[in-house]
Structures are given as C-alpha cells and as structure tokens.
TrEMBL record:
Solute-binding protein family 3/N-terminal domain boundaries: 62-287
Annotated protein name in UniProt: ABC transporter substrate-binding protein
Signal peptide interval: 1-24
The organism of origin for this protein: Arthrobacter alpinus
Record's keyword annotation contains Signal: yes
C-alpha cells in the first residue's frame, strides 16, 4: 500500500529517480526537503540509540531510504519536486534522532524491497502494509494503522461490498491491487456474478484522475490517501462506504538486520516525546497513530 496533486492537471511521475537529501547530523531541522519533522520543533540526537546503529550505517553517517513519492499525503513531490508528506517528516525526524543525513532514494514502489535486500537502501518508507507474505522478504517496524477507503464520483453511489462488474482504479503493486480488490472480484465470480475490472496505475495521482474523468467507477486506496485526494478534487469525489480492513503500516528493513531494533527504539522515542503526534496532526492523519512501535505485527496477528 502506499502515495502533487495539481488539479485539474495531474502531475506526472516523470522524475522518479530524483534524490532528495536532508542533513540531520547537526540535530537541527533538515534543509534539503520542504518537509520539516514538525513545525517549530527541534528534535535532538539520541546518543544512546545512535550508539547502537550498525557500524556500516554509523560510519557512513547516511540513512538511505527507499521511497516512491507519488502517494499524497503520505509521500509525494512538492511544487519544487522535493520529497514531502508526513512519511517524509517522520523519516527526517528519525534521521535527527539517529544523527544521520537522510537520503531519499526515489524510485518505483515495487523496487524498494529488492533495493533493501540488495543492500542499496537501509530501509523503506512508502506506506507499506505489513503482511505475512511480505514478512517472508523483510522485517517490518510498525508505526501507523490505516484502513482501506473507496471513493466514487460525487453523486454516484458505489458499495465496495457490491461492486461486481464495476471498474475500479488502484495503484499497481499496492495491497489494494494485490489482495483487496482481487479478493472482492473472486467473490463475485464465485457467486456467478461479473468480475470487478481492475485498472492498475503506476501512481495514485493517475488512479485518482481516472476516477475524476469517469474512466472508472471507483478507486481503492489507503484511508488517508483517499481522504486527501477527495479534499483536493473540488468536491468532484466522495467516499464510497466506510473505511475497512484496518492494518498496520511498517517500515521494511532487511530480514534479521541489526538495524531493526534500533529503528524501533528511534520511532518509540518520537512517540514518547510527542514529536510523532505533532507530525501526524500537521497532516491531519492522527487518527491512525499508534502508541507503541512494534515489529512484524502481521505474523503475530
């Protein structure tokens, strides 16, 4: 799961290999991204947590973060093409806690886990839903809870539980694409009804635009993403049903990495000192906030 809007024109994902850097080594709010960790906040380096960093990361002084920046308000490009969103703010805050320069390695969503397993990136931050299937590839440090929310054109009622035969837009490789909508479609065909026609787009912007112009009947995305899209479409879209299938977001880290418990402690420190909540409130997504940073919640559920 995961991912500026410029309406009526949608911003294309043309510069996916852009890299944005934020230097947090001096423990002051970052300078390379338009997203500061929290308005007016200075987050200090936690020496005790930073001391536990794996030597490779500690010696480099850089935290390489895989991200697909096309999923607003979580992670996207601002008007200057820089990484923005509450996931970016949270990552910058983590960099400050750890005393590391954050390097956003911008690419496609489906390349993030291979980049982590290949050693190119230390972690991902792209609204990954923690699933048992994904936990076979990586470990997850859980930091947020999000549901799925459908949207339709304003005035056109769509029931996510009765969508057989409809056209539904999703962002490719998200949970909605790989699990949620296909499962609904299978339930349709098992009942002898028409399948849901799934339209897959590389970027959430494109999926939203397809709904606006009427190419599809509905779209499915994470609840904060859908609500943000609706707020940016000048009342052209509406929610379709209530949010459902609430599940944890997780930061993917290489399986068995010594960085995992350090990252967990860094997130927990931001939760405990209130910085985490300030970041979520800044973007209006505090309803999905958690009190405890956990590891591999899906496998324990």
């Amino acid at each position: 799961m995961r991912r500026t809007y410029a309406f009526p024109a949608i911003v294309a994902v043309a510069a996916l290999m852009l890299t944005g850097c934020v230097d947090n080594s001096d423990s002051t709010p970052g300078g390379g991204s338009s997203s500061s960790p929290a308005d007016g906040a200075t987050i200090k380096k936690n020496e005790a947590i930073a001391a536990e960093l794996p030597e490779k990361i500690k010696s480099s002084g850089v935290l390489n973060v895989g991200m697909a920046n096309n999923y607003p308000p979580n992670e996207f490009k601002d008007a200057n093409g820089e990484p923005a969103g509450w996931s970016v703010d949270l990552t910058n805050a983590l960099g400050q806690v750890l005393g590391l320069k954050v390097n956003f390695d911008i690419g496609t969503f489906d390349n993030i886990l291979p980049s982590i397993n290949g050693g190119k990136d230390d972690m991902g931050m792209s609204s990954f839903t923690d699933t048992v299937e994904r936990e076979k590839q990586v470990d997850f440090v859980n930091y947020y809870s999000a549901g799925i929310q459908w949207a339709s054109q304003t005035g056109k009622a769509v029931d996510p539980n009765n969508a057989c035969g409809l056209k539904v837009a999703v962002q490719a490789t998200t949970y909605e694409d790989t699990h949620e909508v296909p499962a609904k479609s299978k339930a349709c065909t098992d009942a002898g009804k028409p399948a849901i026609e799934i339209f897959k787009y590389d970027a959430q912007d494109q999926a939203t635009n397809a709904l606006i112009v009427g190419q599809v009947d509905a779209m499915s995305a994470d609840s904060p993403v859908t609500l943000y899209a609706i707020s940016k479409t000048e009342k052209k879209l509406q929610t379709a049903g209530d949010a459902f299938e609430v599940a944890p977001y997780g930061i993917p880290v290489a399986k068995g990495s010594a960085f995992t418990p350090v990252l967990q402690k860094a997130i927990q420190s931001l939760i405990d000192d209130g910085s985490y909540t300030k970041i979520l409130k800044k973007w209006g997504v505090e309803s999905g906030g958690v009190e405890t940073a956990a590891i591999n919640v899906a496998a324990k559920g």
